[in-house]
Amino acid sequence: MFDERELLKMINRAFEAEPFNGQPSELYEPLNYILALGGKRIRPVMLLMVTDMYCGNLRRALPAALGIELFHNFSLIHDDIMDDAPIRRGKPTVHEKWNPNTAILSGDAMLVKAYEQFLRLPEPILKPALAIFNKTALEVCEGQQLDMNFESRTEVSIEEYLEMIRLKTAVLIGAALYLGGLTANAPESDLRNLYEFGIQNGMAFQLRDDLLDTYGDEKVFGKKQYGDISANKKSFLYLKAYELSNHESRLKLEELFTSTDIGVNEKIEETLKIFNQAEVKKHTEAIIRQHHEAAKQYFNMLTVEPARKKVLLNYSELLAGRII
Amino acid sequence: MFDERELLKMINRAFEAEPFNGQPSELYEPLNYILALGGKRIRPVMLLMVTDMYCGNLRRALPAALGIELFHNFSLIHDDIMDDAPIRRGKPTVHEKWNPNTAILSGDAMLVKAYEQFLRLPEPILKPALAIFNKTALEVCEGQQLDMNFESRTEVSIEEYLEMIRLKTAVLIGAALYLGGLTANAPESDLRNLYEFGIQNGMAFQLRDDLLDTYGDEKVFGKKQYGDISANKKSFLYLKAYELSNHESRLKLEELFTSTDIGVNEKIEETLKIFNQAEVKKHTEAIIRQHHEAAKQYFNMLTVEPARKKVLLNYSELLAGRII
């Protein structure tokens, strides 16, 4: 069986073997640029791990893996415009390096290029593969719209937040695992369980990301700490703290996350006080555990011999924390 | 056989029967909004006319027709952002009525919804239909990028301009005709001729649009006259006049199309002088005739009895001028 490193290499080699060299170059250069920023290629790696787990043919599955990664990068290009983000992976975002119009249009072309990959799949699985990909693509758009809506709303319920991250983050991981199974002709019930495992994994992954932003070790986490607080992001921690706080602390939280007069250090300090008061660390760990619990159940139902399950399990635990 | 009016009604009814009512509504409302702006639905009408011409099943072809129209509207939403256009069909554009972020994301969702329609096609034609749709979608992006590039360039050759309108406008009409034949199981050679007929038709259609902007009757044309001149658009007329003018007139044209100091009436008047001097009306009519000539040749090669050809021929002549 292939490990994470080998699969990552396989994916990057496939991209490098067919760089986007269409004309006009202004349209296609941003696609090569964003792919060259690298990253862990979590979704295609997991997709191929599943194919491998079912002893499927990785060559056969590769177009789906590349398609999913192209889609993910398309969504990054457009999300970065919408979020007005200047930097991604330490480099200028596409709309910064070029301009917003080029970023819109290159993103569109990248979405079409994702579909192009799917068209390379063998005919018998073309329709089911496109069906789940299409459904997922719409859901990711819905998640992004919800995320934007939440920015301008004062009150967002925990339930709404969880639905948003399910759509924005978890379903694409679910779809990747499903597609990995589909290309390997895994049984239908396994496909459903792979999908749900991916969803639970994705939820745990995102909630852990929220947690580590505030309570993580910067060196291990790899991102700048307190980014969500600095950006006034209504993360799970914020919403849980808001839910559990008294009237006074809620007003304070609202003030901290809307005022432009408060210095960033003071803001972080004051926010942490309220987070700690509400014990949000404990509560976030608890909900992550719930998703691990659910992930475990779906994982255990997969009809694969235990020895073949290890690679995928280890990798998903690396991302989402200890599952079993 | 069905006429234009009946086919238009069929298409609009199909859209009305399944309005986009997903959540969050901010994502889907713009899709209903832009479709409700109406229009002639040229591409899906022609697609269904071809299906009908080959005695094909219109129900079977309908998803392709709707998919093509959804794609066209997606491209309008994104193009309007890029062109900073405030008005479409007398109503605010999507990014004006909502905001650019919503327009980006709703456009994305509309592109995915176009693919969703294609997935409803019968399995035997799914792959070839998606193949031409995908190729065409990329080409339309390329055409839009070229169009944007031309704005900031001083010199654009006629050849480059023709390639731009082929990509931005003509290929989608070619693809629509191809798909109409594909769903009706038309012979392979007819599919190629339908595609080329559509390309030539689309070229004539766009060049005629350029011509009528300056030399058309506003009441018949339906758009405000001199729109291209006012917007400094490097239309075929501009480029042909530039090509045929002496050094002095070229400088004058460049000045007219870049200066912000010249009043719009004076600008139109001065531009018309140079256009007339270069006889661009005659030259544009000549190139339109060339495309009619080419369209006619492809049309005549279609293996359909003459009586069944009339509806499509009349309709395309309505759009692109007299072909035969």
3D structure, described in words:
Two copies of one chain form a homodimer. The first copy, chain A, has 324 residues and is an all-alpha fold. Chain A contains 16 helices and two strands. In chain A, strands 1-2 form a two-stranded antiparallel ribbon. In chain A, strand 1 (87-88) and strand 2 (91-92) form a beta hairpin. In chain A, 47% of the residues are buried. The model of chain A has no long low-confidence stretch (mean pLDDT 96). Chain A binds chain B through residues 22-24, 26-27, 78, 81-82, 100-102, 104-105, 107-109, 111-113, 115-116, 119, 123, 126-127, 130-131, 134, 137-138, 141-142, 144-146, 148-149, and chain B through 22-24, 26-27, 78, 81-82, 100-102, 104-105, 107-109, 111-113, 115-116, 119, 123, 126-127, 130-131, 134, 137-138, 141-142, 144-146, 148-149.
Considering the chains and any ligands shown, give keywords for the structure.
homodimer, two-stranded antiparallel sheet, 16 helices, 1% strand
Q: Given the C-alpha coordinates, what overall shape of chain A results? A: globular
Helix content of chain A: over 70%
Which blocks of ≥5 consecutive residues of chain A have pLDDT under 50? none
N-to-C span of chain A: 21 Å
- Strand count of chain A: 2
Number of helical segments of chain A? 16
Let me know the average pLDDT of chain A.
Answer: 96
Give the H and E element order of chain A: HHHHEEHHHHHHHHHHHH
Work out the radius of gyration of chain A: 20 Å
**Oligomeric nature of the chains:** homodimer
Bin the strand percentage of chain A.
Answer: under 5%
Structural class of chain A: mainly alpha
The strands making up the biggest β-sheet of chain A line up spatially as 1-2
Using CB atoms under 8 Å apart, which protein chain pair has the greatest interface?
A-B, 37 and 37 residues
Task: Describe the largest sheet of chain A.
Answer: 2 strands, antiparallel
